[in-house]
Design goal:
Strand content: over 45%
Distance between the termini: 37 Å
Largest sheet: 8 strands, antiparallel
Structural class: mainly beta
């Protein structure tokens, strides 16, 4: 790991049992508090926007794994590779430069000895100068390298004025996202690899604000999935949702040219949570021999459901069939024929269109094995002449904007504040690859200046099948009673494959607030945006499921016995971003729609709305927390918006809203 802190050092961090957060000397303290914490209600509070910021970093500053300015010949790069029949470049390193030159065409990759433990990483090269003239190649590459025949690299070719992403698997190069671009030296070129996707960025004089996105692709995972999920072929797009006949069948014929281990499709249950149906795999077609079948129950709406095979099936033609739905069920698909390797069926007869389907192939190895093999690297390729680089940096990818602010807390809900620093988690936006391209970061914010935000930790999830994923939208609780951290997250890291959004939970004896951590969790409830707090000796959990707001109580201390304490269907309006907040003498559940914040009691009964800024066009999170200000309390709200920047790719401001009035007394005594 990049950095680990064990329980021995928790006392040094002020985490001893019973430790209370330090009071914050307010930057604007009113003479008299107008409200009293003993009688305070959510309707008494109104909030105003105090600060906006956009956390953004290609490589998170505290998570750099390689930084070489080529000061001398003792470079940490350890291996020069020649990926094609072209000559290797003549290379010299020193005096602040990596120089590659040749009189004939050359292609050299440099593989460093450094890498990351999670597939959310970035490599940056500083390009000082390119070759003077070229017809075919005048190219700089940056990314991850395994060997001459396997790599993931972003590149810029000045000869063709193009940029793109190359995924080379067993010597076969697949170019993704190639677009026109014209750069002028000096510039910085970066590749970010984030789950199933990758992006190429540049920083040069043209964009005075910083980084700009050149191109990206969410199809990297279909060729090389460093998460350890394996490659796949799929029809994941859809424009129709035909209902499965109650007494009939729907099916999809498909042909594969190599052994596969899993096949499945995306189904809609029309918001039902108890839908069941039978999924069957046959050879050749609807009348073919049955290979396997499974009765699936309690299927989440709009999720991918699979048949897992004990052993890989050989290449050939197969038929996936759904039958016997217990309630209204749709198989998402296309009204037109969109894939050459498949055909839709209904009641055993061909119909126009194709259904969603994904066929998974055996992974080349676990994420740990893959990431140990793929190292940070870069490359140069030219017809002739000299290319000069002045620096290479690599490490864990940071973020291009954020989502989902959630405070770090103690079990009773009090915010984890040390000195003037508030600790909280954010979802780090990851561009190409969508939701699975994001991951969970731990941050601290200076309560004297809300724009001073620093990422100090990264939390990933390690599945038992060897996958490493960026599950996010979670919560971290330090529990002095067990001297461990309790961590919640949502299974977003493989959403492109499964689409099954569940809340997972684990504990860790390491200091997950700092450094890089891979955790193993268990599913405790269906739904997203979990928030837990211990109230009156019992753990309570709020979350959102299909837009409904759920409240759970647990009969144990390990989140093994969830009991529904209440549910609100929100009159069919979609709400998410569930949080819990102690406001006055009582606890409340908060959630958000596209237009307002709702306030519920612990049984999910609607109490009212929260008076706080609500950016249009997005569903912000209503994270409300009390901050001590001398003998009083100032309530603040951490939220976000969906404002994006097409140049840098940044998505979402971190918004800080302050309550307009001080409150006498403290929420936590």
């Amino acid at each position: 790991m990049t950095r680990r802190t064990t329980l021995k050092s928790l006392a040094m961090l002020g985490m001893a049992a019973g430790a209370a957060p330090a009071a914050w000397p307010a930057h604007a303290v009113a003479a008299d508090a107008e409200l009293d914490v003993r009688t305070l209600q959510p309707s008494d509070l109104s909030f105003s926007t105090t600060a906006l910021s956009v956390p953004y970093s290609i490589i998170s500053p505290n998570f750099v794994r390689l930084d070489d300015s080529f000061a001398d010949g003792r470079s940490p790069q350890s291996e020069l590779l020649r990926p094609t029949a072209e000559r290797a470049a003549g290379v010299s390193v020193g005096d602040g430069a990596f120089r590659a030159n040749g009189r004939e065409p050359y292609f050299t990759l440099v593989k460093s000895s450094t890498g990351q433990e999670a597939p959310y990483c970035a490599v940056i090269v500083d390009v000082e100068s390119l070759a003077e003239e070229a017809l075919h190649h005048n190219t700089v590459l940056t990314g991850l390298v395994r060997d001459e025949r396997n790599y993931l690299l972003g590149w810029y070719n000045h000869a063709s004025r193009t940029t793109g992403i190359d995924v080379c698997v067993d010597g076969e190069v697949h170019t993704l996202g190639q677009v026109t671009a014209e750069l002028t030296t000096p510039f910085r070129l970066a590749l970010t690899a984030t789950g199933p996707g990758a992006n190429v960025f540049v920083r040069d004089e043209e964009n005075a604000r910083g980084w700009r996105v050149l191109t990206g692709s969410d199809q990297v995972g279909t060729l090389l999935d460093l998460r350890g999920l394996g490659r796949w072929i799929a029809n994941a797009a859809f424009d129709t949702a035909p209902v499965v006949p109650a007494d009939g069948t729907q099916g999809q014929l498909f042909t594969v040219d190599e052994p596969f281990t899993k096949v499945g499709s995306m189904f809609g249950t029309w918001q039902a949570t108890d839908c069941a149906f039978t999924l069957t795999l046959r050879r050749e077609g609807p009348a073919g021999a049955e290979v396997t079948r499974s009765r699936l129950t309690d299927v989440p709406d709009n999720s991918w459901q699979y048949l897992d095979l004990a052993e890989p099936l050989p290449a050939g033609t197969y038929y996936l069939e759904v039958s016997n739905p217990s309630s209204k069920l749709s198989w998402w698909g296309n009204s037109d024929d969109v894939i050459a390797w498949g055909q839709a069926y209904e009641n055993g007869r061909p119909v126009t269109g194709d259904r969603t389907i994904r066929v998974m192939f055996p992974p080349a190895g676990s994420a740990e094995q893959m990431l140990a093999a793929y190292r940070n690297g870069f490359g140069v390729r030219a017809d002739a002449g000299t290319i000069v680089l002045s620096r290479v940096q690599a490490g864990y990818y940071g973020q291009a904007g954020i989502r989902d602010p959630v405070i770090v807390s103690l079990p009773d809900g009090r915010p984890y504040i040390r000195g003037h620093q508030l600790y909280f988690t954010l979802t780090n936006h990851g561009l190409a690859g969508g939701i699975p391209a994001a991951h969970m970061g731990v941050f601290r914010m200076d309560l004297r200046d809300y724009t001073r935000v620093e990422e100090i930790g990264k939390i990933y999830q390690q599945r038992r099948d060897g996958a490493v994923l960026g599950d996010h939208a979670g919560q971290v609780i330090y529990d002095p009673a067990i001297r461990r951290f309790r961590v919640l997250a949502v299974t977003f890291g493989d959403a492109d494959v499964y689409g099954d959004f569940a809340t997972e939970y684990t504990t860790s004896g390491a200091d997950v607030l700092h450094g890089v951590h891979l955790l193993r969790s268990k599913i405790v409830a269906q739904g997203i945006d979990p928030y837990a707090v211990r109230v009156d000796g019992r753990w309570r959990l709020a979350l959102s499921l299909s837009g409904r707001t759920y409240s759970y109580a647990f009969g144990d201390d390990d989140f093994r016995e969830p009991m529904v304490a209440g549910v609100n269907d929100n009159a069919g309006i979609y709400y998410e971003g569930t949080k819990m907040a102690k406001i006055g003498p009582h606890w409340y559940i908060l959630s958000s729609s596209g237009s307002d914040y709702r306030v519920y009691d612990l049984a999910a009964g609607l109490v009212g709305t929260l008076d706080a800024p609500h950016p249009s066009g997005w569903i912000p999170h209503p994270m409300v927390l009390p901050v001590p200000v001398g003998p009083n309390t100032r309530f603040i709200q951490l939220s976000m918006d969906g404002d994006g920047d097409p140049v840098s790719g940044a998505f979402g401001h971190l918004r800080v809203h302050e309550a307009d009035h001080l409150v006498r007394g403290h929420e936590f005594r």
